[in-house]
Amino acid sequence: MKGAAFGCLLTTPVGHTMFRVSCEVEFCYGHRLLNYDGKCCHLHGHNGKAVITLETPRLDERGMVIDFTDIKRVVNRWIDDNLDHRMILSENDPAVPALTELGEPLFLMDGNPTAENIARLIFDRATEAGLPVVEVSLWETPRCVATYGSAE
Description:
Radius of gyration: 16 Å
Largest sheet: 7 strands, mixed
CATH topology: Tetrahydropterin Synthase, Chain A
Oligomer: single chain
Structural class: alpha/beta
Number of domains: 1
CATH architecture: 2-Layer Sandwich
């Protein structure tokens, strides 16, 4: 896969007075988990998919929650520049010095790079950019997803 892929969907949840849009960003990344007893304690990779959901009670003057192009510009670009085709590791991972010396592209996190923490990372970056994000789900595999979002 070359670069992050992008797709979007507009939904209005039944029984709510909110409008939601969701965008998918596919990207490739590697990681490993510290303090973990299992296969994921070793360096390995994923073809992941982040689903970013934004919500607002009113549409703008164009009839949109937000232009999908604006979401793509902010979220897709950040993921492509920071996470796509990188090793996402804890800053405390003992492999960091060796991988840095080899020139491997890394993204270092405060905590363990679990799917839950990566979902929170993307949520926080989109929120910092001013997007009305309510939820980010990270599909680590086609059957395993972790979600981080604001409480309703």
